[in-house]
């Protein structure tokens, strides 16, 4: 074969075309990017050689060019051996290239041997061509499978990227929300501190209001024993003057002196009695005003009920001189001493009595002076087994079912603004139920 003949040029073109197809099939621009500049220069050089050979009948070693391209092609496949289709293509072309190189060598350098075995060589090349086509189809399928897998991996990578982005976004949102919650928590803690401070102030205000009512009652109640003390003291002075006059006479009357001494002793006993009464009232006021120790003491509940009932009544009368009411006590003589916290129980009793008198006062104002309504408050004590039952009953305005359900709630009050904090019954409920493990119940009918 003339190396500058069209057949020789066709061999070179066929080898170049096969090489170019292989480059695209194996995606060498991506997998062998460093080779691309040399490939581009090589195509230009080959084109110039083929053109010069065809136009000027220049003898070129086209077979050697084809052989060089084939060896370069094999080397390129070896470089891409990590790519499975490349290994399959290498397995496909290896027999064909070996037989082609062997046939060309024998044709040029051993023509007689070539002619003697021409049929065998042609059949072998034909078989290698079938082998080539079969394995190229396999390589093509492998490439499609790999492309599909790469696309799936790319899709998975994209999904992971999206998930990671979503994760980072969620982490940012969680961090932002956590910061907001932390800020809200700090604000709530600050608000709670302020609320507790306000609550303590309101409780103190309720105690001061209770103390004010107690003080008003004491001012009236203590006046009676003080009047008795003053009156008996004046009479005692007169008796002493009369006794001194009798002792100054020449003829003294022993019987008169004895009577004067008896009267004087009785007056002093009455002064002592009413002084003790005034002292107990002051003592009760001091106990009520001081902070609770929480320590239980043996206490006469009957005396406590009687005393604070009077103090509550006179405390309301100190505000409204026109108010009058009947108050009675029914005290169980067998009650004896009861273990309670006297300061706390006194606050409960004063609150209940004050509310009772307030209720009958309001009904009296609603009824008017000509209705025949008589405000009445009754207090009774009973010993029921291991428990003490104290009942405070009034015939005032009464409460609806709805009000009864809320009566022990903090800050709930039926009084006009400025007349109640809504903490009195709430504190009383806490003292009885939690402080003394008892119960505080209400039974009422509106208007009755």
UniProtKB/TrEMBL annotation:
It holds the Pfam family HisKA. Its EC number is 2.7.13.3. Residues 217-448 form the Histidine kinase domain. Keywords: Coiled coil, Kinase, Membrane, Phosphoprotein, Transferase, Transmembrane, Transmembrane helix. The chain crosses the membrane at residues 48-77, 89-108, 120-139. The keyword Transferase applies. Gene3D superfamilies: 1.10.287.130, Histidine kinase-like ATPase, C-terminal domain (3.30.565.10). GO terms for molecular function: phosphorelay sensor kinase activity. CDD domains: HisKA. Residues 148-205 form a coiled coil. It is an enzyme of class 2 (transferase). It comes from the Bacteria. InterPro entries: HATPase_C_sf, HATPase_dom, His_kinase_dom, HisK_dim/P_dom, HisK_dim/P_sf, Sig_transdc_His_kin-like_C. It catalyses: ATP + protein L-histidine = ADP + protein N-phospho-L-histidine. This is histidine kinase.
